[in-house]
Amino acid sequence: HPDARFPRDRYTKLVEKLLYSKFAPNIDIRTPEKISRQNLLLAHDEHYVDKFLNGELDEKQIKRIGLTPWNPEIIDRTLFLTGGALEATIYAVKNGGITGNMAGGTHHAHRDFGSGYCVFNDLAICAKYVLEKMEIQRVAILDFDVHQGDGTATILANEPRVRTISVHCSKNFPFRKSVSDFDLPI
User: Fold this and answer.
1) Which residues are the active-site residues?
2) Which pTM was predicted?
3) What would the 3-class secondary structure string for 26-69 be?
């Protein structure tokens, strides 16, 4: 589900390139289901989740996320995006190999608020899901992004079975960094 920053025509062209490339036999592109409220609650505060799902975030919360102008389509977009990340994770755990979500990586969302264009933290949700529902013993999150994975770090700070590793630009958003297990600013 493309968004305004990645228009449908560019999305379609990228998918077509992948499907007609030499890698096509190894690629399976799927449309995800929406993530459930129950799975959002693995990493997020119930009050925040319900306010978002009911379209009741206040102006300050919406501004902090940055997805303006706000419209109801953002709710479905976010639920599909996060659902896709979880489905890709489950697939990788069950089948091995490499999976990914073209819209994922929402590492600025914290437990009880969104930030930096991120509503829910798909990385934290996926980590908590596999630990609690798939009998995985340990998870490492390697976050290679120009921005620090601040929300991932705060949500998983007290989870001893997860290691958060963020490689990011030292002088970029977020300007007040959180503490990951391993921060590698460049």
Assistant:
1) 108
2) 0.88
3) HCCCCCCCCCCHHHHCCCCCHHHHHHHHCCCCCHHHHHHHCCCC
Which tens digits make up the pLDDT trace of 79-123? 999 999 999 999 999 998 777 777 788 999 999 999 999 999 999
Show Cβ contacts of residue 152 under 8 Å, excluding neighbours closer than 6 positions.
107, 121, 123, 124, 141, 143, 164, 166, 180
Q: Do 142 and 165 contact (CB within 8 A), yes or no?
A: yes
Q: Which residues contact 79 (CB under 8 A, 6 or more apart)?
A: 34, 35
- Pair 174, 148: CB distance under 8 Å: yes
Task: Give the Cα separation of 136 and 64 in Å (integer).
Answer: 34
What mean pLDDT comes out for the span 67-77? 90
- For residues 122 and 108, give the distance between their C-alpha atoms in angstroms, rounded to a whole number: 10
Query: CA 141, CA 153: separation in Å to the nearest integer?
Result: 10
What's the average model confidence in pLDDT over 1-13?
A: 57
DSSP string, 137-177: --EEEEEESSS--HHHHHHTTT-TTEEEEEEE-TTSSSSS-
Edge-to-edge strands, sheet with 162-168: 139-144, 162-168, 182-185
